[in-house]
Structure formats: structure tokens, C-alpha cells
């Protein structure tokens, strides 16, 4: 006997009861061991990428797609940070104020004159522009006036014709954005100011470590890397 919370015979519940009875009548129990099967794959095994494609197919009309490269050279923590930065979800002063956090000021801790939102910290601030200019010059790339994080990720994802060099440039750009963010946190929380040139040196060392430890064997030495990151 079912313990109904309300009488299913009333008009408002009768249609739902009918659907429930029909669904139960369609159930056929079979002998054997129960198993789960994913209808998205041919072999019945669940895969995240197939679910992601299915979701994209359902929302292609109104969803804005941005390019994030999930490559093995870049630690997952850094890629996740870039993904959140593109969506404006990292804890900038403006984002924190929207969440109800009381701050002394929302001005940028570097240039003071700008409001500290995500794209200002990582791209538009003169401090970030100086770092970006030096990194592009080191990579032998003509100067580009980026306006937001998404423009940088899209540029790296579509740059050049060599997949190996494109992957390395992606690692450099992601390392650059991460290092600019770290420098901002050092200024605020540790009262430690790192010059743009110091951040550039940190980027070169950080990405060299990624490529050497997480990438291909026979990678170039430190001197060659400092000369040109695409020399090997």
C-alpha cells in the first residue's frame, strides 16, 4: 500500500497518476546482473568529452564559446585559473565587492588610477602591458594591443602553423597571466613589489620548468631558451 501525501484521485493529480502507472507498466525485469550503459558512446562507456559535446549541441544558439587549451605542458591549476579569468570569476576587487566583501578601495594596486577588475589586472594595466610587451618581444612576435584575457587565449590557440610551437606559446601566455596575478597578490598581501622585468624573468623560468619537466625529451638548454623559446 502506497502512503500518498495527497489523494491521487482528485483532478489535479489524476493525470500524474496515470503517467506513473503507464511508466510502471512499461518496466520489464530481466534476469542477470544490472549494468549501466551510456547512450552517447558506441561501446556504452561514459566519457566526459561526449557529454560536453552533447551539451554544446543543445545550447549552440546562444552560448558564447571561448578557446581554452587544456594541454599537458600547463598544470591543471593554471589552466583552471585561465578558464575562470576568461569568465571574470577570479577574486578581483570589483568581484569581491559584488559579493559583499568590504574593501578600502577598488583601485588597482599597481597603477592606482584604474579600477581593479579582471581584464584590468591581467591585460589593461600599464604594469601588465609592460610585461606582455617584453614577452611578445622575447617570442619574436609583433606587438599586439590586447584588451581582455580572451583575446590572449584565442591568439595563442590560433597562432602559427606548427602545433608544437603553438602549444609552447600557449604555455608562455598562460604562465604570463598567472605570473601577473601572482605579482598582484604579492603586492597586496605581502607588500612585496616585483618590477615588470622581474615578472618577465619569473615567467621565463616557470615555463622553462613546465616544458622541460612535462614536455618532450631533448629540450633546449637554459641559454637557448632565454635567446628564443622556439629554438628547438
Describe the structure concisely.
InterPro entries: RVT-Znf. It holds the Pfam family zf-RVT. Helix content is 54%, strand content 0%.
How is this structure best described in words?
Residues 62-130 form the Reverse transcriptase zinc-binding domain. This is Reverse transcriptase zinc-binding domain-containing protein. Pfam families: zf-RVT. It is a single chain. With 232 residues, this protein is mainly α. It has a domain at 122-227. Helix content is 54%, strand content 0%. It has helices at residues 11-25, 48-58, 76-86, 93-98, 118-124, 126-139, 149-158, 163-189, 196-214, 222-227. The protein is extended. The mean pLDDT is 86.
Number of helices: 10
Helix/strand order: HHHHHHHHHH
- How widely separated are the two ends? 75 Å
Helical fraction equals 40-55%
* Largest sheet features: none
Overall geometry comes to extended
Strand residue percentage: under 5%
Low-confidence stretches: none
| Rounded average pLDDT | 86
Protein name: Reverse transcriptase zinc-binding domain-containing protein
Domain Reverse transcriptase zinc-binding: 62-130
InterPro entries: RVT-Znf
Amino acid at each position: 500500500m502506497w502512503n500518498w501525501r495527497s489523494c491521487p484521485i482528485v483532478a489535479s493529480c489524476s493525470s500524474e497518476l496515470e503517467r506513473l502507472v503507464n511508466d510502471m507498466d512499461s518496466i520489464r525485469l530481466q534476469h542477470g546482473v544490472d549494468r549501466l550503459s551510456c547512450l552517447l558512446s558506441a561501446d556504452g562507456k561514459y566519457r566526459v568529452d561526449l557529454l560536453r559535446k552533447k551539451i554544446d549541441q543543445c545550447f549552440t544558439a546562444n552560448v558564447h564559446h571561448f578557446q581554452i587549451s587544456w594541454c599537458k605542458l600547463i598544470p591543471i591549476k593554471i589552466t583552471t585559473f585561465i578558464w575562470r579569468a576568461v569568465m571574470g570569476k577570479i577574486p578581483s576587487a570589483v568581484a569581491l565587492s559584488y559579493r559583499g566583501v568590504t574593501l578600502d578601495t577598488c583601485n588597482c594596486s599597481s597603477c592606482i588610477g584604474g579600477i581593479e577588475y579582471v581584464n584590468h589586472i591581467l591585460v589593461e594595466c600599464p604594469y601588465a602591458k609592460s610585461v606582455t610587451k617584453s614577452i611578445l618581444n622575447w617570442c619574436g612576435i609583433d606587438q599586439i594591443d590586447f584588451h581582455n584575457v580572451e583575446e590572449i587565449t584565442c591568439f595563442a590557440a590560433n597562432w602559427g602553423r606548427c602545433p608544437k610551437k603553438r602549444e609552447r606559446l600557449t604555455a608562455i601566455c598562460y604562465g604570463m597571466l598567472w605570473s601577473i596575478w601572482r605579482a598582484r597578490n604579492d603586492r597586496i598581501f605581502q607588500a612585496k613589489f616585483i618590477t615588470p622585468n622581474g615578472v618577465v624573468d619569473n615567467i621565463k623560468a616557470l615555463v622553462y620548468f613546465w616544458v622541460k619537466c612535462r614536455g618532450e625529451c631533448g629540450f633546449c638548454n637554459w641559454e637557448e631558451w632565454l635567446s628564443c623559446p622556439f629554438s628547438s
